[in-house]
Input
Amino acid sequence: MTKNTSRVLPDHALVHPTRRRRCTITALAAAFSLVALYAAWYEAHGSSTPPDDELPIPQARADAATQPANGEALSATVAGSELIKRGEYLTRAGDCAACHTADKTRPFAGGLPIDTPFGTIVTPNITPDPTTGIGQWSDADFLRAMHEGIGKSGERLYPAFPYVEYTQVADRDVLAIRAYLNTLTPIHYSPPRNSLTFPFNQRWLMAFWNLFNFTEGRFVPDPKQSAEWNRGAYLVQGLAHCEECHTPRNFMQGLKSSSRFAGAVQAGWHAFNITPDKVSGVGDWRDDELIAYLSTGAAPGRANAAGPMGEVVANSTQYLTPVDHRSIVTYLRSVPPISGGESRPRDQWGHPAGDVTALRGTTITGVNGAQLFVANCATCHSWTGQGIGASEPGAYPSLIHNSTVGASTANNLAMVILHGVSRTTTHADVLMPAFGNQLNDNQVAAITNYVTRQFGNPQSTVTADQIAKLRAQQ
Output
């Protein structure tokens, strides 16, 4: 009997070559994918020269010039001056100063903290300082930030910077803004760092946020609409970024497209419904009233701008041309009306009060809203609530037929009492003192509830605890 002396190889010895081949194939596939991705990236972002109509304005003009003469140099100087002037107008239209100025002695140097559900974002310095600002940014860097939400070093920007809307702004207008910012005094200032919780402090995650909440691309005029409508759409959807405040947000804090302009709460303030719904929105406002509100912050018998909207009027919309005001109104008239469930328009509540007579000779115990109103508010607004000065520019507004007082939530009224009003326009210098340091939460709640009950929507009430939360808002 012959003995079988052949060796039986272990299983792992048979499998190992196959596994090694698979690893090799996987590595080659990965390398090929990386090369393909780099080629695609280079095609999109490489150093190839863009078409003439996409070149930065100064470069396109220089490339087109041949044998420059003195007259042509003068023409270029005039064109540059016009570009800067246009950039200043557009910078105001975009209200860039509001977010990028925390200290008025350092305009556009950033440092403003913005509270979000994920932490605090601090706005950057956009002066032309070369180390702390954007002085070393190229035009291409600036365009990429505005249109794609990507910074100079390739970092993803957070959508507190509204690139979601700015992506629609034409290259020529972005470059005009850039030209104006280049003329600002450079301010050497590094704002504090963001304070975001993990994982929201990981900027690369914004790529996934963008997949659901951002569509990159420039505004395309609608040929079926008028030039005025298209101009309004370009401003509202783009540079003016009205949706950032007036559109509610989804669970990812992206804009809720199904409720555009239906109103939302920002830092305790309610940005109201501006759709043409006749009850919940501004559908029953006349065009001249909407234009007056945008240009002066006041529409007598309707509303008076305060808080963030007061700042928008003071810093931005008052400087827009009449053509742009009309264009914005024309566009807003066309958006779908959305009902907020209100029973009557915000500006159709209230009647004069007679409480001062009842208070005479009465012993007041506890916190009394009527007494606090007479003591703190009646000097300017009259104890009847009818205001002083009617519709004059410097009038103290009536609390009757006032959209802030007649709103379904009392947030804005309480915030005005806490923080006051400071709105300076060419129309008037409006000032209401802040009472937050003089009145406690119970007293502010008592005045708020008295005013809504007497002059506005009686169903709109607040508690002292709610006042405390509003007081803590930045």
Q: What stands out?
A: Residues 280 and 340 are 5 Å apart (CA to CA).
